[in-house]
Amino acid sequence: MLARLLLPALPPFLAANAGITVSVTTFCARQRDIGDADLSFGFTRPDRGRRRIRRLAELTMSMAASSACREGERSVLPVWSFRDGVWLGRQGSGNGSTELHITHLEDVATLVRDGFGTAMLPDYMIGGYSGLVRFDSSDDEPAELVLPVWMSLLETSGRSSAVRAVAAICCDVIQANLPPARVDDRRLDVPTEDDRE
After folding, report:
1. Alpha-carbon radius of gyration of the chain
2. pLDDT digits (tens, 9 = 90+) for 118-148
3. How far apart are CA 151 and CA 124, in angstroms?
4. Span of the secretion signal (predicted)?
5. How many domains would you assign to the chain?
């Protein structure tokens, strides 16, 4: 499903970036509970005047399994704390990447558009938990509760214009497929702020 959503958006990007080759790799999703990647983009370009192929960056996308959002299991995953646009800290995972924990999809949109890694698609994007929706709030209504979303950032990709461009495409696809909706808090298996206190 990720490929069906994203691949139609790649030709305009490739047309605007002559010489860049994009390779797409899909992964087995048998270990979704630990957030394994579902789709990976590799960017390469021949060096001018040489036959050597230069690897520009890699962009890895994945989903947030519902089980990984439960308080008891969340602590075992590497976490970047995020608040008001400020990076508070990070931890490395065993495969060399880092992971970011945020609360709302509006933060995903901001981070992806700014080029900070890639949105890790939650499981509702592949037909899983149907109760997840985009975070939307207004002055008249309280903010809706949304399960956390995990992001993955490969250390080599932070400043790559190719990664930023495709990340923006991914973000637009995500936002376009998430109509605002209400969430029944009783269906969400995550603690509230009152519970933590």
Report:
1. 17
2. 333 333 332 333 233 333 333 444 433 333 3
3. 15
4. 1-18
5. 1
